[in-house]
């Protein structure tokens, strides 16, 4: 059964249905969008049940010739890593649709267009994680920018056009570097046994180390922009500030994961030597991102920008985990991708509701919300606790795995990164205090608490955060084989415990 | 017959045409000068055709003439339209495209 | 080791209470506090049941474990959600659930007028569950979950009235400073995993013998950092005074009896590390000694009754940490002092709450006075706690504190003499400031505000106080008669044989009592024989001023960490905007700028375009010419 193609076709079908709906009936549009995303989620879960978690080979493989004269195939397939990310994307999609029920009304275009864009984006989110043909991956990677561009530029707030353009140009810049690398790989594959874009075939190419280094950088810069790694991060706060909360969830929660996913899937497997060469530099950048993102988050006055900077810090953790190359750090990084999706979603959605009620995203405009809107305030608090990786919530498991795993090979990096957890306490508790505690700021007395729709939207997110904090095993069992496969391919093994190490 | 002379003439005509295009203001004159340059090129083609003893140059000359004819049709129409709207055939007056 | 499947109920019961109360919302306002109290009490009874089972077993079979499920398993990093109940944790379980239940009962009345009483009880239950997880976890990572869980509960309860900005700030300060300590625990776990490949208590204990001293010292120091954060020890002590912003029962339970003693638990639990890492152990002792003086000095200058008690807590935990740092002999005494302190300090805090309850929430002791007549029960229970903390025989503190002083003297050499002197001095200062609290609050003339109508608290409040007072009187004797606690705990600790005695117990007790008498005498002269000002006098010595400012701890933190941190943040925010984003926008602007300047060429004049084309063509031909030539 063509599970992956089915997954990609379903949202498209939903958007076709929406196109044919009357423009006036916005409610029906939203219902169709919600139903579509729910069906996709159901199909994904059904697919995940059939996933053989101990099998490290790609599963649900599909391959059809697309443009045979150039060796381009429509090839899909997933391992544990991709499965986890697809699962995250398809669970987040209905949450976003439900949570941003009224987000599209202030937009430049119709509500219909908004949901069409979201559904098209969902198709691409699935495709980008499932593609195993480099050309197909690249096409989807770039095409994803289009719906997001329109979602930010058409439905955002503030300087939405500028932010959308900034996002687009940044991403295109990285994408073009990657394109150059892809073409180079294609040309080289022609000299070594036939033109192809097949990922598995390309991983076996012979290249000189200089070539590898340059091609690696082409890919890595594209992914480092996506995942925002310091100093390529400045598009993210602007985009997050201008986008609607729902868009931000998809942007930070899913799209940015393409960057870290790409680092594992493409950078490491295509250019193992170059990855080793650049690992020290990348680790330094990752550690800088962790600390820098956290400090910048502390200094923000705007709630959305603050959340964006916390994500930069978290992506630093993920990148560090990927390149530290121990099974703990690698599994932790993958789990972190999943968990970050949900904790950022919770922060953005609840933060978005606060902002839309108050009509301002400046933190200082809030105050005393805990007394006025207790449910909303507590949800924000919980989301914040998840963001600062409180033990018992899901992000703790992943953050600690990354730190422990990194420590066994790069203790200094891990030690510096651990300071991030103190900064995390600050960047969460400062807005919590300003927005939720203290006396009620004038103008906030009559804010309404969460309604039933919003509660239903946030409940699964919070549930996942809590349940996975105590019981991450099901997910880890899917992730572990994939992560150790990556490390084994790479020729690394975990450092043995060294009883005599005189470290520290 | 020294073919070089034809080439000299062709170059001379081309130069006259080029200078005319650059220095003259009247659209009709500019237009004529462009035609002059085209025909100078035609002369070169025909000359080379003779020198080489095949018909390639001649054929290209015919092509050029067809293009020139089309150009005349479109170009004159534009000039006439501009003249009608501006009461002037000066090319310097039609500089609206700069922004 | 034996397994059991009933340990989880210890934690599950209060946790269920917290979840039910938080999720049910206003619906459970009417019965929420009763449910929470009942669940806490049932957890206590489960603890008693476990104790009775444990008493029936031989020493070796006493520890029992329960594996709940596989929590994290990646490569060799395997952590089960497992519980371990042994002789040490059962002490804590009973202290936490016992004192916890009493404080639940007390709070029913104390918080009866608060609209958010249900939420308060939910947080109390959450705290009990987290604290139990802390002491029952069978690995450092499980302990870590409870460790941060109690931090969260403490944050929520300190900031329970967070509509007051100062209280909200206090809760944030507590959380952040605790997080610094938690970072130490993270480091300890990382080093343990990197060197030994395991983080379970049994695993680390087994591996500790073959591990290099350097690694063990690293782990030990990091555990100490963790302990200083949670137990408000120097240099992470500054949050405890502010934590008194929470409702008084919270101060009694979390910031006196249980949570702040978690550091002592951590060090005793990790005895196998500290025993093998003398440097770390020495640092523990130093931290304990500094803090016990630090807290005592702050206590002498505080007019806020709760802050005076908080300073005293800090100082008493300093004793425990010092005791725990004195190696195998000290662990049991530290735990003993911890238990007795749990009784008398919780009792005194509840007494303070009772006084505040009767005095319109006034906390300034200079506005009390002569309350003895109006609150006899509070006076008696508080007084018994007072005698216990002073170490007057036969009250509880006498047994536990004297043991620590004695152990300090016997630590050997110059170290022993210094530590012994410090602990003795501490005892004297303790006597001074506690007597001061007693005199200012209960005796002398009344200095109340006019609207104050002091009255005794209802029975729901004084009953727990009375029970705790009984504990303050008897616990020391019960725990030390026949070395009951020492023998109970001894299987857990390495036995290092007998130490030479520098001073005999009788001399130590005499010295300590002399110091106490001197302290009392000073306080009596200063506060009972002279008039007490209603407003704190301002013409005081520089030392008093410094002590009033908590020995400049906040000023120091502000000057060294906060301000530079704020400046750094601001600078980085600006840098990000101007330099990094500036560079990005600079590229954009450069593109726009070059376009704008090149646009000048596009004049719109056809003839100039033609000219350019001509020049270009000529240049091209010339270039080809040159190349061909």
From TrEMBL, chain B:
GO molecular function, one term: oxidoreductase activity, acting on NAD(P)H
GO biological process per UniProt: ATP synthesis coupled electron transport
Topology within the bilayer: Multi-pass membrane protein
Coiled coil: none
Transmembrane stretches, start-end: 6-23, 28-48, 60-83
GO CC annotation: NADH dehydrogenase complex
HAMAP family: NDH1_NuoK
Name of protein: Unannotated protein
Native source organism of the sequence: freshwater metagenome
